[in-house]
Amino acid sequence: MAQGQARSPGSNMALRTYCCSVSAWQRRLPFLAWLPQYSLQWLKMDFIAGLSVGLTVIPQALAYAEVAGLPPQYGLYSAFMGCFVYFFLGTSRDVTLGPTAIMSLLVSFYTFHEPAYAVLLAFLSGCIQLTMGFLHLGFVLDFVSCPVIKGFTSAAAVTIGFGQIKNLLGLRNIPSQFFLQVYRTFRSITETRVGDAILGLVCMVLLLVLKLMRDHMPPVRPEMALGVRLSCGLVWTAATARNALVVSFAALVAYSFEVTGHRPFILTGEISKGLPPARVPPFSVSTANGTASFTEMVQDMGAGLAVVPLIGLLESIAVAKAFASQNDYRVDANQELLAIGLTNTLGSFISSYPITGSFGRTAVNAQSGVCTPAGGLVTGVLVLLSLDYLTSLFYYIPKAALAAVIIMAVAPLFDTKIFGTLWRVKRLDLLPLCVTFLLCFWEVQYGILAGTLVSMLLLLHSVARPKVSEGPVLVLQPASGLHFPTIEALRDTILNQALEVSLPRSAVLECSHVCSIDYTVVLGLAGLLEDFRKQDISLVFVGLQAPVLRILLAADLKGFQYFPTLEEAEKYLRQEPGTEPYNSCEGSVPEHQVALLKA
User: Fold this and answer.
1) pLDDT at residue 164 tops 50
2) What predicted TM-score, i.e. pTM, was given to this entire model?
3) Which is more confidently placed, 496 or 354?
4) Where, if anywhere, are coiled coils annotated (predicted)?
5) Which of the 8 DSSP states describes residue 480?
6) Which residues have CB under 8 Å from 160's CB, separation 6+?
7) For a Cys-Cys bond, which of 43, 89, 118, 198 suits 353, CB 3.0-4.6 Å?
8) Does residue 394 contact residue 72 with C-beta atoms inside 8 Å?
9) Looking at residue 246, what is its pLDDT?
10) What Cα–Cα distance (Å) separates residue 14 from each residue in 32, 238, 262, 273, 402?
11) Separation between Cα atoms, residue 381 and residue 379, nearest integer Å
12) What are residue 476's DSSP bridge partners?
């Protein structure tokens, strides 16, 4: 093409098509956007972050398998698939996918401590999450309010934390049901094993001290002396890898006693060595009473097939959005659904149980200076190496040490400040929080469902009660859309305050905030207009948006009158000259409204 010659329309169209195609591929495979700019500096930071997260996830995975009621190796089986899938599909550089305390609790609740059920639950949860991602159903999560989430996570923190008291104290034969667990734990307190109790408490103190050291460590500056910077780096490394350090310390203590012929601690015991075999998820399982078919397994898991995918998505997307906001970038919620869904689906082929985004490990990732999701590759490789070479050493890890790791991990989930915050901001929101919190101790699904229903009822109550202004003319202002749950309350308010009084008065329905109505509302408004007409007074409408006006005009309501502003409506109702309403005749609609209606 000659210099200065304009591109032909065909070449411009081809260029636009190419750019759209590249953009579409980058949306579905986000790594294509950052991989071309990858640098050695990013590689160094990602390696450090991946190593830090790996040293955190290995002891946590072993501990969370205990929470899930599964053999320890299943925690490690669940800890690496997300690292590789998220490299390709993730939109957050900080998020790490893997086993978490809350997801492990749900797995324990819905899979009866049976690995086959846990693996099948991962497969089915992944399929549901993938379907939601492809259908762009992420908005469904918006119906679960923050008080419900806080109530659930706080109850989960108490349940998980108290469930580890038995391991911390070395108690045996404690049931898993929460209330029975509390009763039997206190009944068996005299059977506490001194060695486990001392070691567990020491591990908790060490974890707390290391965490406080990291939280209060001053930031490293270039002008600091080399010795100071090295000291700060050493403290930061020790504090970041505190789970691995404390568990290794406890295993060394246990091994020292073991070689002298003493066993004061309950140990983790044998762990299957090597990588998990790749195989299709179990669609049937042998039980003491025969073989449970796929249909029977699904029926056994029941509500878990809804609760586990939902909570997994909520937890992961909440983590991604929190760190995206903190570090000034954006995440694609539907792409995150695809990432976690594919992770669970593929993970089920290597015996993983359901996973989600981990807030604690994501925080470690971010604080380590991770630059891209490539840091997850280092974490995944580290987990695979531990499965292949370190499982024999895991035998000596005391269960009390893993219990300490779990308790310290879930303690921040109990948000004590939320109660005071809601008391100051909106006390009514304490209701769904408390309902969820209390019922989750009975059944998790009932707690979440009841809390969500209470939140929806509070929302409907506020929507169904229009704002009322007193005066010679009654003015009502619905807060949002007018739909079938609200019309009866609106009708009762208007009748009680405008018609069923000693001196009936006209009313104005100020609809500037109303963006939609349904057929039930149209029928209700027709009845109201008839009631006002019988009393020989007026009900008029103000501030109708084009979609709402279009519906009301199409309904051809008898006596329908509307005004663009409240002032004009009040002038008309006071019978001041020079003001006329627009009625249902299309010819009376002003030109600017006609343009809107035809748009």
Assistant:
1) yes
2) 0.78
3) 354
4) none
5) S
6) 67, 101, 102, 104, 105, 406, 410
7) 118
8) yes
9) 94
10) 21, 55, 77, 55, 59
11) 6
12) 468, 509
Dihedral sign (CA 515, 517, 521, 527): positive
> Hey, what are 498's tokens?
């405008």
Question: How far is residue 511 CA from its own chain's centroid?
Answer: 34
503: CB partners within 8 A, 6+ apart:
none
Residue 476 backbone dihedrals phi, psi, to 5 degrees: -115, 140
Between CA 231 and CA 226 the distance in angstroms is 9
Q: What is the pLDDT of residue 595?
A: 46
Q: With the C-alpha atoms ordered 285, 286, 288, 291, is the resulting torsion angle positive or negative? A: positive
Region of poorest pLDDT, from 257-261, 306-310, 488-492: 488-492
Which residues lie below 8 Å from residue 288, measured CB to CB, with a gap of 6+? none
Q: Which of 268, 263, 206, 230 is nearest to 58 (CA)?
A: 268
d(CA 433, CA 440): 11
Distance between CA atoms of 95 and 81, rounded to whole angstroms? 14
Tokens 């005299």 belong to 190
CA dist., res. 292 & res. 287, Å (int): 7
Separation CA 103–CA 217 (nearest Å): 32
SS3 content of the chain, % helix, strand, coil (to 5): 65, 5, 30
Task: Report the alpha-carbon distance of residue 487 to residue 344 in Å, rounded.
Answer: 44
List all residues 6 or more positions away from 290 whose beta carbon is below 8 Å from its beta carbon.
none
**C-alpha–C-alpha distance, residues 232 and 552, integer Å:** 70
Do the Cβ atoms of 74 and 53 come closer than 8 Å? no
> Mean pLDDT throughout 404-408?
93
What's the whole-number mean pLDDT along residues 465-488?
Answer: 72
Residues in the chain: 599
Does residue 362 contact residue 97 with C-beta atoms inside 8 Å? no
Could you give the CA distance from residue 1 to residue 6 in angstroms, rounded to a whole number?
9
Q: In whole angstroms, what is the distance from residue 115 CA to residue 165 CA?
A: 24
CA distance 174 to 106: 18
pLDDT at position 215: 84
